[in-house]
Every structure is written in C-alpha cells, then in structure tokens.
Design goal:
The chain is an alpha+beta fold. Helix content is 29%, strand content 17%. The longest helix is centred in the C-terminal third of the chain and has 18 residues.
Length: 180
C-alpha cells in the first residue's frame, strides 16, 4: 500500500512542548490556523506513528460528509464497503476506537476540551461526536498504529501527573473510567 509522504508542503504553526503542556489547546490553535484557510475543507488528525494510505484518506474524506467523525479500521474488524456507526458515548472495545486517527469535515468540527492537557482529549472528542451524529469506523479505510498503547508510565512525573488528571477528568465528565 502506498504511504502518504511525510511532508505535503504543509506549513502548520510550530507548537513548542513546554512545561505548560496542553495538547488539546495546541490542537485547537492549529485548527484555528487551518480553518482560516478557505481551501481547507477537512481535517485529518492522527498520532505521529499512525500510517495510512492516500486511498484511505480519500475514503475518509468522502464519508466525513455523512457522519460527524470518521476513522479507519485498524484491525480488519469491519468488512470493506461497510461501516460501524456508534451514536452513543460510552465504552467500546479498545480495537474499535478511532481516536488515534480520525477525519472531520469543516462543518462538523468541534474543538478539543482543553481540560484534557495530555491524555484522553481525542477519546473525549470521539465520544462528543458520537452524540452529535455518530462516529463511524469505515471498513474500506485501513491504517496501522504500530506503537498503540506504548506510553510507559513511571519515568516522567509531569506526564504521569497529566495522564492521571486526564483519567480523573474523563470519569468526572462521562461517568465512566477512561477507555485506555
């Protein structure tokens, strides 16, 4: 499968990682920059180690006109030509999450909740999109996430504290334990 090139001549704003870490805020600032460009019609959010083909990006762009948020099938659980639609916030199998790679059309964009500084901001976003029209896993769009769930705990006290804060905030907001 053809992989997307690393650089497509994009000029996103540079977000410097500092002690005041807030990934959701950085995401929102980057999206505000992108939406100021009239030619930007869709946003693809993905973690740095996700690999997705150009074909899959095209499939997601077409399907994002139908559903609030769409993502690829990472584990071949959804047959090609079909989709799995979730319209209610709540836990799902960790293999059915699309938080690590998802696409949204401009009209469906929601900012990330900046109460999540470093962890679970994308899961929260997926759950909010479910409630607004559905989050769909698209079977014809494939991607891989080779290092999924590999964030080690215990060696970075600042990150560990942010992760624990995110877990507490998620439970407070949704009434469920964090999905990861």
């Amino acid at each position: 499968a053809k992989q997307l090139p690393e650089n497509r001549n994009l000029k996103p704003p540079v977000m410097v990682r500092t002690h005041g870490i807030n990934i959701a805020r950085w995401h929102n600032e980057g999206m505000a920059y992108a939406w100021d460009l009239p030619e930007v019609t869709h946003a693809l959010w993905l973690e740095s180690d996700v690999r997705i083909t150009e074909h899959s990006v095209d499939v997601l762009a077409r399907r994002s006109e139908q559903y609030s948020l769409v993502g690829p099938d990472f584990y071949d659980r959804v047959p090609p030509g079909t989709y799995q639609l979730r319209t209610q916030p709540g836990p799902c199998d960790v293999h059915d999450r699309i938080a690590q790679c998802s696409m949204v059309a401009r009209r469906n964009y929601l900012p990330m909740d900046e109460g999540f500084a470093w962890w679970l901001e994308a899961e929260d976003l997926e759950w909010r999109h479910r409630a607004l029209g559905g989050a769909a896993v698209i079977g014809s769009a494939k991607a891989t996430h080779p290092f999924s769930g590999s964030t080690p705990l215990g060696n970075d006290p600042i990150r560990d504290a942010a992760i624990e804060q995110g877990r507490r905030y998620f439970k407070e907001k949704w009434g469920y334990n964090a999905p990861i």
